[in-house]
Amino acid sequence: MSCLPLDSERIDRDGYDPLTQRRSEDYLVQSQSQAELDADVGGREWRLAFARTTIGVTMREGGTCRVEESVYGAALAMPQLARTVGWDKTMTALAIRSVIFLVINIVLQAYLLKMIAKEEIVMDMFGGQMWLCDFGADLANCPGPGCRGPGGTDVSAARLYSWDAIVNRNFVKDSMKAVFPDKIQEINDFVDPGEYGVESYWCRLACCFIFMISCMDELVLVVKMGELIFKIPTKAEPWIRPRPRTGEPLMGKADEVELRIAGMPLVWKCINLAMIVAPKAMLWKLACETGITFLMETAGMADAITNSVGLAFILSLDELIAGALMSEETSNFVANTADFELFDAKTSCVGDMSVLSDDEILAEHAKAQAISSWGFWDTVGLIPNKLVAATFLCWIFVWEYYYKHCVTEDQDGIQRYISKEMHVPSFATFDWCQAFLPAMFPLAEESEPYWKMPEK
Predict the structure, then answer these.
(1) DSSP H helix total and E strand total for the chain
(2) Helix (H) or strand (E) holding 16
(3) N-terminal to C-terminal alpha carbon distance within the chain
(4) CA gap 218, 213 in Å, rounded
(5) Rounded to whole angstroms, how far apart are CA atoms 12 and 16?
(6) Is 313 domain-assigned?
(7) Which of 142, 201, 229, 434 has its CB 3.0 to 4.6 Å from that of 147, i.e. a possible disulfide?
(8) Domain span at 87
(9) Is residue 358 over pLDDT 60?
């Protein structure tokens, strides 16, 4: 007994059926219809297609939300899929694994960010370093007014060094003083350790902006995930739906069913907000604060450029864990879950397009989209929202750095940001509360400063 392939499998992309040795009637009809449309370029059907496309863009401004292909997305979707199938053994195990990977990711991201913050806030203080602020910011016009460095002398390109170089050069100078105590005056006159400052003020700011751009994707995911949890129905709805049978044997693959974001009980909404959205938002804030501080403390141009890209790795750790450690089946379930529409189909530029006739769509489109109807909000709409948000957030975190670590000083009539007086921390410890809530749990410091701005 022989089995013939289905028509859809037998007919090639050009409509040719090798069994009957002729093109299929459906293909000929479709080709004829398409040929008629192509011949009527600019006709009614074309104008309707153009109008619906433009109206659709205005309708979908709210965007969609998809399950993120990371440990966060898996921890959101897999428990709901397990709930849908009645908490059977296999799906429950996948859901528990997803939560375990979520916890591992949160701990690792928080630990790495905490260590970077400790390096800047604790260990650099024990090394005698002051905050970089705007030392050497106007290097092109130095030496001159407003060019005084943390050593009390004017910064210049020939005397500008990194902090490690400054430490080594001061060590050599102090060693010479200890070995030749009778030559201290000569050593002070002829041995110049140089000054510490930023090589390029604008390059440093540009790197901060680039870093903030890399953080925007994570912020959008946090906002959309929170919006998703609030918008889906607060009831237990199935996240798995059967697809119509095609006659082929079903093997239980993820693409044989419809995986979709649906409602979830109130208790699961609260759990997801507490375990997924809130930690993700807190880690994003800590990453931005720590990253901007780290970049503002980077004096070299090449180091700042490299660090602006490298810091984004920490925020992508959740995707790395998902791709490297999660099971293939979990990844397939997350990838095949359909998007959830956050927009309202009734909020296009012409209202609800589904209740309009073709003539009404053409008329409303011509009215709403005519260049003559250009107004104030159309001009405002030329500015990308995410660009504005990235610029504003970059300014906020840079301002926070200056507010926490710098003060203004008048240097020959020019206002400059210089480091605050530096105090050695009382302890080398830096706990989680001090990392995440520094305003409530400040770092204990010695009363006497180890550095303050010297007189010229």
Answers:
(1) 19, 13
(2) strand 16-17
(3) 101
(4) 10
(5) 6
(6) yes
(7) 142
(8) 65-155+197-342+380-456
(9) yes
Asked, for residue 44, whether it belongs to a domain, the answer is no
Write the DSSP assignment of 432-453 as a string of letters.
Answer: HHHHH-TTTSPPPEEEEEEE-P
- Joined together, the tokens standing for residue 402 give 């200056």
pLDDT at 9 over 60: no
Is 237 within the bounds of a domain?
yes
* Integer Cα distance of 168 and 184 in angstroms: 18
Mark 414-446 as b/e (b = at least 16 C-beta within 10 Å).
eebbbbbebbebeeeebeeebbbeeeeeebeee
Phi, psi torsion values for 222, nearest 5 degrees: -65, -45
Q: What angle do CA 185, 187, 190 make, to 5 degrees?
A: 110
Per residue in 305-354, pLDDT tens? 999 888 888 888 999 999 999 998 898 888 888 888 777 777 777 777 77
For β-strands 257-260 and 240-242, DSSP reports them as antiparallel
Residue 5 has pLDDT above 50, yes or no: no
Tell me whether residue 185 is in a domain: no
Residue type, 229: I
Residue 268, Cα to own-chain centre: how many angstroms? 26
Distances (CA, A) of 65 to 106, 144, 338, 343, 405: 22, 55, 9, 10, 39
Who contacts 363 (Cβ-Cβ below 8 Å, separation ≥6)?
none
pLDDT tens digits, one per residue of 389-410: 999 999 999 999 999 999 998 8
Amino acid making up residue 111: Y
Counted domains in the chain:
1
Nearest CA among 32, 1, 6 for reference residue 19: 6
